[in-house]
Amino acid sequence: MGFIPRDLPPAARRFAHTKPPQPKVFLFMTTALFPIKFESTYRAEDSSEEELSPPSGLCFSSAGHLLLADDFNHRVQVYDSQFNLLHSFGSKGKEPGQFQYPKGIAVDAEGNIYVADCWNHRVQKFDSKGNPLLTFGSCGDAKGELNEPYDILLEPSGNLVVVERYNHRIQFFDPQGVSLGWVGDRGTVLEEQLAELQGTPANLLAPLLFEFPTSIAKDSQGNYFITDSGNHRVRKFSSQWQEILSFGEMGTKEGQFQYPQCVSIAPNDLLYVADLNNERVQVFSPFGQFLFAIDEANSGQAFEAPCLTAIDLKGCLHIGCTFDTRIFKYLIPLVSQKTLTESLLSNPAHIFYQALSLEQENDNSKALTALEKTLALFNDNGKTSPNLKMNALLQLSRLSAKGTPIIDTTFGLACNAAEEQLEEARNNALKCFLSWQEVVAKFTVLLHEEQRKIVKDPDGIRDFNRDLHIAEQEDKKFYRLTRNEFYCYRKTIQQFSQFICNLVESRLPETQIKPLNEVLLRQTGETLNLMKEYFGEKEKSEESMVQLLGESQGEKDKLSAFLTQFYSNCRIMDLQQHLQFELQSHWFNLRTLAQNTPTNVSLENLAGKMSGDPSAFENVLKILIGFHEDWLAYPQLEQQFLNALDIFSGIPSLDETVSTKNLTLADFSPISYDSENLDFAEILEALKAEASPLNKKNEGLVWGQDEFQFPGFPEHKEELAHCALKLMEIQATYQEKSRELIQQLEELSQNRKDLDIQLKQTNVEDKVSPITINDNIAIVQFQINLIRRMVMSLDINQSLNLHRLVLAGAFLFLENNAPEDPEPRQFFNSFNDHLSERDQQIREISQSRKEKTFKLAELAGQAKERASEYKISEISDSIKIEDEVERVKIDLDRLEFEFQRNSRIKNILDKLAEFLGSRPTSEEGPKTSFRESRILEKAGAEIGQTLAPQGIHYNRDGDLLVADYENHRVYSYSQKGSYQFHFGGWGSAPTCLQYPVHLSTDSENSIYVIDEMNREIKKFDRCGNFLLQFGRGDFGPIFSLSVDAQDNMWVAESEHNRIRVFDGQGKVQRTLSAHLQEPVSIYCLPDGAYLVGDRSKSLLKHFDAQGNLIRETEKASLGVDEIYFLAWHPSHGIFGSDFWNSQIIHFNNQLEVQSVYHKPGRRAGQLGKVGGLSIFNDQLAVANFDGGKVQIFDLST
After folding, report:
1. CA separation for the pair 683, 532 (Å, rounded)
2. H or E element at residue 458
3. What is d(CA 375, CA 842) in angstroms, rounded to the nearest whole number?
4. Which terminus, N or C, of the chain has the lesser number of Cβ atoms within 10 Å?
5. Going by C-beta distance under 8 Å and a sequence separation of 6 or more, which residues neighbour residue 782?
6. Distances in Å between the alpha carbon of 1079 and those of 15, 847, 1116?
7. Which residues does 699 contact at the CB level (< 8 Å), separation at least 6?
8. What is d(CA 867, CA 875) in angstroms, rounded to the nearest whole number?
9. Please, what is the angle between helix 556-596 and helix 408-456, to 10°?
10. Nearest-10 crossing angle of helices 618-626, 680-690
């Protein structure tokens, strides 16, 4: 039987399916573990003088009365506890008190009744007698509008949670019916998976996707459960609407669903789910374990298409069906979870349920005992689901992180099981991928044959190509299968990473750290080997592709061969995306291990090798080079590797000189820009050196982990000076070649965009053009990939030249520490000029990036305005705006590339400048010591997702709160950097955030967050539970807030040129505007004074507690922009972030500039766009927005 909507009204259809009344019987179900007793039926069709319809909503009042939505009679019936009809109210219509197919019902403590008036798209409130009190909602999808409200949950606060079936969302209302926002949007499980695999932003596809949600229930822990009917699953959310778990899929097996319609929760938190088309009610633990089912076979009652469940005050279960007027009543087990789980020892899932319930009760030692039994059963039971295994392993790691000691035997079993699960998921994905490759190869041959016929005779009549159709269907089938396996693989990677991360942070004994490290090394090495193998296969095919492309003019066979290999390589790159996701997770965990147990790691671990392996990094560097054509994946992968390299290199036990190199003049010869002779050892040497200081040691130099000697240097001083000048001169050649390649790349990218437009505009009757355009797209994309690799290879060679240049300059400087000879002096003059030019270029690029970003925001606003007006006459304007947006994006991409490239060059040159004792003019004056001690990133279940930190703030306990701007969440980390919790997420509900830009805390550690998109401030308690919101419609753009010593909140409002002060409830206390010019940042000092950054000529202003301007600092000659974020410390002074110039300005408490820390880049101690700043003790936390991390700098040194 297919899905049957309950709101289709034909009575004939309804009663044709209604079965004859069954005799009243009492039957115990045939299970000792779950004694379910059928007690009775009531509300039979012949029990009333009125015509009855099947129920569409059930609810019990505090008095024990049953309220029932009589669907097709458009009324609500009220029965007493003996199921005698007391009264009913409602009729068909749209007036207050009338209904059109009422659904869910809720009753408050005063007996007021709330009804989801489904086809009137509203909710109605009645008193206990059925008299109308309130109506809210109308048809639509805007805030406050409803589309088929299907169920209602009443909160203790009086707020209502409404499930909207046709808006596919959950909307929240206050007691007066005013909407507080919503969560969710329409989407399928497949769309969710694709969004995660492709990294789709939350603002384009909200993470909470529903397909016809139908009911809601809440357990004793405050968690919500939603039946996501069209996706055949039940979803569990925390009180903050963070998804905890999802269980179920389409099918007929235990734990599977066919349109789950209703969920009810018993006093012991067991879930009873009406599984509509499977004609049963399934029972689950609150953690998602299937326990048993109520169906015709074990209840003796034939109920067809159950659609409703409800639990009365005595704990009895009531079931309503789609085609039956009767209600079925059952006595169900009401024993506590503890008693229930103690009897569930039959299988791993039940024992795992016991472990979870014990952990919930904080009985961690007994929970561990249950888990040990579960793990033992895994080895004896080969049929255990992978999901159950990983969840059990995750619980074990959580218990370890909470301080529960795990014996070595259990630890070993857990590590082996986790490793097996990861390998199984990876092997399943690879197997499916290879099968897909074989299927695609057959399909491609047939497709190209068919396309040749079309091109040759476009108007010819051809027979249906059955073989091609079958091959195409197979291709689609294996594409879907492969996507699903990739998704499962990725989820397993995240679970494995979370398992490892929890264990690493548990301060394990030595006997457990070693096997854990061995697991990581094996899996890192295996992943790298697989990636190397697939890149090798791709590289071989590309050698023939270049030849085929050159010979394919007019030869369809050679073009077909080229295209076949091109698309095969595209699929290989797709596979590599998932393998590199695993590699990144291993690097993250190796970094975490290095920071927690530095004596157990070595640099070679990053390559899956043991210490001392000379070839360790060749595979890593080859993998990085293999991703050079992918300008989305490569920066992220390289950043993860460089983060790991910097952390490992900074460990004292690893930060010792490991090799000595005796240099000759040949080591200072310039490398040609087109050289393909890559020396992997030298590349690694240069990478390590980039984040390390250059120092003198005896007669030589130490840089990175290498000591350099130049025997006989005094005799070769002139030759070395000549080499140094050549190395300096070749920089101009590299600059010119880089410009040429970037220009070619922009032209090809524009060609690609033009071809995409042509493809969209082809006539549907034109059979030939789509074929030739798609062929040209493939050719152009191949050329783009080649140019991208040439650009990146150019960068590698230039970095090696710069490494040689710095060493040459340092050795020249060592000679008497005063270069007086002409050639050395010429070199140093040229060097200083070049360094100044680079610094100026970076600042100019930064300004251009800022202007283009603002331009893009302006165009986006124009496009949104045009779209809202729906004027046909302005379509051409909209197209022009879209074209302009594309041009600005291309400019921004180019500027970002130039910024990163120039920053890298400058930072390498800075090593020599610092060695010489000179600095750029912007860093003259008193110096500030910035030493990066650690970084914070996303971890565990969110491995692979990039952090986008904007505002950050230490609370009074030293916990660091991070506003993740582009992921719309706030994360909390402990003082030691361990992840604690998060809240928020995209949406319009009170608990949700849209682009959180800054935050602060009060004396109780309550959290105030600026929601940039909605231009409002939300207040949460210290655990992230929503408290209140204010300011929407009142604020303009706001970026900064600060809480003073009296817990008042200060907000800088640039558009309104004011600072307003609010109390903890959001009520205005003061408004300040004197001496301000578009204030963008605010910081409250302990004595009542405050600091302001605005858009005037002043960089920073200091006001006393009465609002008098005490002092200010001018921007002139400092090379800085507006200060968007501020931090203060009584001993260390004031720090301000210059977001667009990637720098931090340090002031003393008299507002005198101490230094400008301008080190743009991606390595340790270097900065991207600088977001929020916060200080706790001597630790300065810095939000590195485009670096995807929070950097912690130790100011004590």
Report:
1. 18
2. none
3. 56
4. C
5. 545, 549, 566
6. 70, 20, 18
7. 709, 814
8. 9
9. 160
10. 80
3-class DSSP assignment, residue 1096: coil
Q: Which amino acid is at 705?
A: Q
Cα distances from 125 to residues 55, 135, 160, in angstroms, run: 19, 6, 11
Give the tokens for residue 255: 């734990």
Which two tokens mark 358?
A: 């014990």
Which tokens is 1156 given? 């400008």
* Residue positions counted in the chain: 1197
1023-1026's contacts with Cβ under 8 Å and 24+ in sequence apart are: 1023/981, 1024/240, 1024/970, 1024/972, 1024/981, 1024/982, 1024/983, 1024/984, 1025/239, 1025/240, 1025/983, 1026/240, 1026/990, 1026/991
Q: How many CB atoms lie under 10 A from the CB of residue 980?
A: 13
Residues 6+ apart with CB under 8 A from 1034: none
| Three-class SS state of 173 | strand
For tokens 């460089």, name the residue: 642
Q: Residue 330 phi/psi, 5° resolution?
A: -130, 145
Q: Which residues are CB-contacts of 1125 (< 8 A; sequence separation ≥ 6)? A: 951, 998, 1040, 1081, 1136, 1137, 1139, 1170, 1171, 1172, 1173, 1183
Give residues with Cβ within 8 angstroms of 294, minimum separation 6.
29, 36, 280, 281, 282, 283, 317, 319, 330
Q: Which of 625, 619, 602, 810 is nearest to 705 (CA)?
A: 602
Distance, in Å, from the CA atom of 604 to the CA atom of 612, rounded to the nearest integer, reads 7
Torsion sign (Cα): 100, 104, 107, 111: positive
CA dist., res. 1020 & res. 1000, Å (int): 11
Which among 1171, 693, 691 has a CA at the least distance from the CA of 962? Answer: 1171
The answer to whether 149 and 118 are in contact (CB under 8 A) is: yes
Q: Which residues pair with 1170 in a beta bridge?
A: 1184
| CA separation for the pair 273, 251 (Å, rounded) | 15
Is residue 103 within 8 A of residue 216, CB to CB? The reply is no
Q: Are 1132 and 913 in contact, with CB atoms under 8 Å apart?
A: no
Q: How far apart are CA 102 and CA 117, in angstroms?
A: 5
Q: Using CA atoms, how far apart are residues 734 and 756, in angstroms rounded to an integer?
A: 33
Of 730, 1001, 617, 449, residue with least CA distance to 625: 617
Q: Please state, as a whole number, how many other Cβ atoms lie within 10 Å of the Cβ of residue 1032.
A: 12
Supply the pTM of this predicted model: 0.90
What average pLDDT values come out for the chain (1197 residues) when binned by 10 residues?
41 36 37 76 79 95 95 96 94 96 96 97 97 97 96 96 97 95 91 85 82 97 97 95 94 96 96 96 95 85 90 94 94 86 80 92 93 82 78 94 93 94 96 96 93 89 91 95 95 94 89 92 95 94 88 78 94 95 93 84 87 81 93 90 88 68 93 88 90 88 90 87 93 93 92 90 89 94 95 94 95 71 86 92 93 90 75 68 86 91 93 77 51 81 79 96 94 90 90 95 97 95 94 91 97 96 96 95 97 95 96 86 95 95 94 92 93 95 94 90
Question: How far, in whole angstroms, is CA 1031 from its chain's centroid?
Answer: 28
Following DSSP, what letter does each residue of 66-126 receive, concatenated?
Answer: EEEEEGGGTEEEEE-TT--EEEEE--BSSSTT-BSSEEEEEE-TT--EEEEEGGGTEEEEE
Residues 6 or more apart in contact with residue 831 via CB below 8 angstroms = 728, 809, 909, 912, 913
For residue 1079, give the nearest of 1035, 1045, 1129 by alpha carbon: 1035
Nearest to 122 by CA among 180, 177, 58, 75: 177
Q: How many whole angstroms separate alpha carbon 864 and alpha carbon 1154?
A: 44
Separation of alpha carbons 975 and 504, rounded Å: 17
| Residues 1006/1064, Cβ–Cβ less than 8 Å | yes
